[in-house]
Amino acid sequence: MSKGTPQPRRISIRAFCTFGRVIGYAGRHRRCRGRNLFCIVQRQPRAGWRIAYLVVRDRSLTRLEQHPGSFESFEPVRGRSLLFVARRKDPGAIRCFLLNRPVVLNKGLWHGIVTLGRESDVKITENSRVRCRYWDLGRVLAVPK
Questions:
Q1: 28-75: pLDDT as tens digits
Q2: pTM
Q3: Is the pLDDT of residue 128 over 80?
């Protein structure tokens, strides 16, 4: 580093608080183990968006969800996840992807996510107000053995 350039520091909640917010799930270990955890990290209602953080603990799904009026990003932060998607309500149309890079889902896309490990973390950006619809699959989508 050249003279006068500040030394890099590790980001922590305390060190960064005067500059912004660290994205994560506070209190993740105090909450119900074995269940997914979801929290809104930042909301900008007048601009119409929010950032959320999802701790994925599910290893199987029995339903997919859809947000008819919102694009939605899934951005892997930690661990490995599988993303199930379908453009229409047809079991034969369901596809599965390893969530190894950030993606934006189209409005109205059926989707669900599972972890390949004990848990994984995903950052989500979506409309500030999200309407959810659910599709009960009548079967289980599970992590392949």
A1: 666 566 678 877 776 666 778 888 999 999 999 999 999 998 888 999
A2: 0.76
A3: yes
CB 93 within 8 A of CB 87: yes
Share above pLDDT 90 across residues of the chain, in percent, rounded to a whole number: 35
Residue 110 has pLDDT above 80, yes or no: yes
Architecture of domain 37-142: Sandwich (2.60)
Classify each residue of 117-132 as buried b or exposed e, where b means 16 or more C-beta atoms within 10 Å of its C-beta.
Answer: eebbbbbbbbeeeeee
Domain residue spans of the chain: 37-142
Predicted pLDDT of residue 132: 93
> Sign of the CA dihedral 45, 17, 57, 100?
positive
Q: Which runs of E-coded beta strand occur in the chain?
A: 37-44, 49-56, 60-66, 72-78, 81-86, 95-98, 103-105, 110-115, 120-127, 133-142
The tokens 């889902």 sit on which residue? 105
Give the angle subtended at the CA of 21 by the CAs of 19 and 109, to the nearest 5°.
135
